[in-house]
Every structure is written in structure tokens, then in C-alpha cells.
Amino acid sequence: MSELVLQQPKIKSRAMKELNAVATIAARDITLFFKSPGMIIMSLAMPLLMMGMLGGSLAQNMAAGLGFNYGKFMLVGMLVNMLFMSTTSGISSLVEDHFTDFTQEMMISPVSRYSIVIGKIIGSSFGAIVSLIGTLVVGLVMGITLPVSQILAVLALSPLMCLSAGALAMIVIGLIKSNKMANLAVMLITMPQMFLSGAIIPINNSSGVLFVISRLMPMTYCLDLVRAVVYAGTPEYDSVVLFNPAVTLVAIIAITVVCLMIGTLFFARSEKNK
Amino acid sequence: MSSIITVNELVKQYEKAKEPSVKGVSFHVNEGEFFAFLGPNGAGKTTTISILTTTLSKTSGSVTIAGYDVEKDAQHVRDKVGIIFQQPSLDPQLSAEENIRFHACLYGMYGYRPTFKMMPAEYRNRVMELAEIVGIEHALFQPIKKLSGGMQRKLEIIRSLIHTPKILFLDEPTQGLDAVSRRSLWEYIDNVRKQNGTTVFLTTHYIDEAENVDKVCIINHGEIAITGSPDEMKSSLLKQELVVDAQDKDGLIREITNMGLSYHVDGHIIVPYQDRTAQDIIARLETKLTVLKIQEPSLEDAYVEYLMRTGGGAA
Questions:
Q1: Cβ of A104 under 8 Å from any chain B Cβ?
Q2: Is residue B121 included in any domain, yes or no?
Q3: B139 shares its domain with B247
Q4: pTM listed for this prediction
């Protein structure tokens, strides 16, 4: 039996411990992404399906008479949509973690529940960024491009988009205990947002219930902010951007914080309250 | 010695359950103590341990760990404890080392690095040392799903010890381990206790593993049946037995009867005694003995007897 050496944590400050925990949890999801060829293929196939087929079909059949370039409108919508879809899908792996009891390993650790959730969202965002790049490549093949400066602006905003998507997903996923339900939940969260938030169909003329729902969806504001950046200074700005960007940013932050708090509470309670 | 775990009137009733799984349990564990929490399947051991380690909420009662309330100061409690879960809680898609690294970094032992080679030498040495102790050094970089159940158990043990917790909860830690690995694990845990003063809270179905603990608490049907040291439990419940035999068996039985002792024959003559010593009995026997043995009851004997006294084993 070898001599035991007493180990003490090398990280002393609470804040650094939490940051390290976020990085560790995020890094696990990124490691799993690279270890799963299926996830890599899906991340690249989704843009082909969504942008290439769905977007392509819409562009050919309903783009006329909009008063702006539908291809660019749709590309921006699809970029944000892919961030939302992939992050939500990544968050759903929490259900599998619960199934394999790995959530216990995280729940017993001396870190804030917020760090666990944020780490998970950041980790899930990695696949989302791969999908975003895939969407840009498919757009390029279709002849729809954005200037490099605008791509960089979208990339700069993507962490906020992913955090917003992940926080919303946590509210639902945190309560689910089966893989089958998780898959349904991903559809339930992403599909209405894709169609009602203005990702591929303009919502300037929405009214009634659909109008109310669209205003409650975080993706509506995320999309609008990205479009405000991409279309800034162009003649189409007023046709495609719905809100004042400053108001939009505040709305995104407020919705994200509220969703994060509720989602974390639900996640922690569902693990603990049995 | 001060109390490091205090449980008062703890009750846990699961949602949709008709009655509580844990019914007003109270006990305490002193700092540095080796404490065994024993009971049959379904007695409430894992429920209690889950509440103590903050992974399950209680229905009522109070629980403090190292002075911190498990509900109000859960994060402080988690800082102090380590646990080997009854159910494996490893990520099957990561390698063994990646699982350990995840744990070590989550506990702030080291800053996260994306590869084993990039981790500090101290971490690498410690992982190799622990892997050697439980014999999984050759499987350290293999995916978990390729490891046997026993190997996975060993890995969980390494993982729980990497952050040297103040209180170590072991929920059936040696389940699925071979005899050599079990012995090696207990040697290591003994070493951890001696050098760090770690409090160990053990649940096990191998009652012999609890023979050397400081205190035993038996739970049955969600209630505490008894708490005490293994010796106290054995002596308070069970009669010791003298096993004797002689060529003149009838003469020996006559002498035993004349002393007012009861006996039964099961191959040899078995004489239970409680209020006198074996020395006293042997000294008064004149028949020449061919067999002489003092039978000490084991903790398992005491455990089974307590379960029988408290309504048999739980379901």
C-alpha cells in the first residue's frame, strides 16, 4: 500500500471554483461531441435539411413580392434557428445523464446549480456552433452569403443566443425523465419557434394568438437582434427588423435570466424531490 | 469527540408512496468515527444516505453535516463529503481517466485541462497511484463501456477519494468486487482514516466488513433497531457458546446439567452461557474433554437476531 498524500483543492476562491466547474462541465459535452460521429454528422446534416431543403423550397416558392432579399433573410433566420435547435437538442442529453445516474455525480459536487446548468448550456452550444458553420457552408453553396464582418457579428452574438436557447430548454428538459419524452420536448420547443419567431417566415403581419406567442418566444428577440446587426444601415432594415435593438437586447437578457432561474430551479428540484 | 453528523427525527416519504420509507430516524456520528449503517434491502439506508449527501430532500426532521444544515447550507455540506453511490454514476462514453478528471476538476482540485498529459504532474501521479491500488492502471484510458462491472466499481472508488473528503459515504462500496480488491480497498480506506481523520459512513450487505467499525446502527422498516459498538451489540443480544465433547459423553452431559446449564447436541455438545465465564465452566468439569471450543457470536449473528426481533428483514 503506497503512502497516502493529503490532497487539498488547488483552486481556493469560490468564483474560480465555479468558473472551473462551468469549464469542466462544458468540456465534457465537447469531448462527447467529438467522440460521437453521429452527433457530428447530425450537426452537419441539419443545416443541409433545414437550409438546403426547407429554406431552398421556400426561397423558390414564396420569396417574390417581399420587398427584400429572401435568401439573406432566411440565412440569418436559419443561423439563429440552428443555434436554438442544436443547443436545445444538446441540453436534452441531461435526460440521458439522469438515466445513467451521471447527474448524481454533478448534483453531489460542491458547485452552484447555476454553474452546472450554464456549463451544460455552453457545452451544448459547441454542437450549435458547428451547425451554424454548416449553415453558412450550405448558404454558400446556394449562393447566399454574408460579408465576413457580419458573420463575425453573428458569431459574437451566438453565445447570448445559445444561453437564451439553453435557458428556455432547461425549463422543459429539467423536468423530463425519459429519452422519448426528451425528443418530443425538443420538437415542442424548437418547431413553434422556427415557424412563429420569424426565422423563415416574416411575422410583420402576425396577429391574434400567433402574435402573442411570437412575442413570448426568446428566439423572436434573438433573431431580431441579429437581423438588426446584419441589416444595419441597409434599405431593408425597416422591413425585416421589428424592434429597437436596445429594447431587444434588454428583452433577451431578461427572458434568459428568468428562464435560467426557473430552469435551474426545476432541474435541481426534479433531481432532489422524489 | 464532537458529532459531525447529527440526524434528528428524520422522515422521508416519497411522492405517491403510501407510507414513509424513513420514519423518524435519529442518530449521530462522531468526527473520525467509522460508522456502519446496516439493514436489509428496502430498510431505508440509501434514502437516508441520499438525504445526508443532499441529493434527496427530506420530508421532516433535521440533519446537520459538519455543523451545516443539509437543506439550508447544502453547498457547504457538499464541500465536506464524498460518496460512492450504490448505483454507478459514471459517464459511459468517457474514458476512466476522463471520469476521474471530471470529478477532480468539478471539486476544484485542479484547473481543467483538455488532456491527461496537460494536467499537473501531481494529478497524474495521484491518479496512477490510486489506479494501482485498486488494480485498474491498465484500463485507465479505456472507455467505461468496455470495463467490467467490477472495474467500474473500482473506478468509482478512485473518483470518490481523489478529493480527500472529510466525510466519506460508502453505499455498498464493495458490491461486485473480488476478495483481493475488497481487501485492498479496506486497507486504503483505513489508511485514509488514520492519516486524515476521515469520518466513514458505510452501508454494506457484507456484515463482516462492519466487524471493525466504531459504531453500528441497524435500520429496519425505516426505523432504528439499535445503535452501539459491535461488541456491545454482540454481548447484549447473544449468548456465547462453549462447544465440548468427551469419550464419556453421558458423564459430561450429567456434569453440565448438575451445574444448571442448558445444552443441545449438534455433533458435539453445545453449552450456551451468558452470566458466567467459560473459564468458570471448564474449571468445574472433571470429565476428560476431547473437544473444547469457545464460540464467539459474529456481528452478522447479532444483526440477524436484531432483524428478527424487529419484524424480520424489510422487503
A1: yes
A2: yes
A3: no
A4: 0.81
